[in-house]
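Lab manual, section 2.4: Encoding a predicted structure.

Procedure: take the sequence of the chain (239 residues), apply the prediction step described in section 2.3, and record the output as structure tokens. A sample record is shown.
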Amino acid sequence: MATYVLVHGGSHGGWCYQRVARLLRSAGHDVYAPTLTGVGERAHLLGPDIDLDAHITDVVQVLRYEDLDDVILVGHSYGGMVITGVADRALDRVGHLVYLDAATPANGQSLADLAPELMAASRASARVIDGVELVNFPGEGPMPHYGLTDPDDIAWLAPKITPHPWKCFAQPLRLENEASLRGIPQSQIVCTSTLPYRDPADLEPARTAGRLWDIDTGHDLMITEPEAVADLLRQVAAV
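Recorded output:
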């Protein structure tokens, strides 16, 4: 039995992993899918202090208070920024990192650095509400980026999307234990369409270990292809 902690991307919440979590739990695994502060069902906690560090702390606290060890830590999209920071701060609790069509940052990089065109498009429609600069409002520019085509999937996703604090995307990730972090086994599950645009160096650790997989679907692959994602996550646990 493995323990998975599934970290969502921008404007989503733990809810986006419902289908994958159900499959993993049915196979006997423990699954946690926390929602980061300020989005999803925790949108009422949004404030000017919510940034990447706050989201890293959210997940570190789950590991500590749930007494989790040897965790398979999964991050989707912006969640790749978060899980990298979590592993740096909780090295003794993370056994494997899985980047799910996710950012793979180095020390000092922000998501805005890694995906400048996409982030510029997001910020172009930013609004300041109650002192917080927010991007990715439901129904605006980034929605097609999620890659959903099934009407039922779109109808399920759209009401749940919440705007995201820009500070999370602009803040550089600060790593204190980068050398040790890079020693944690790593897997990459990416969308086939994004492979040509990825830095080969970011994928090389997973490729060398035989844990680089691609799924021919849209960016929200945990929604569009939950069976394929769950199957690959089970393979990670079997290594």
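Check your result against the sample. The chain is about 35% helix and 15% strand.
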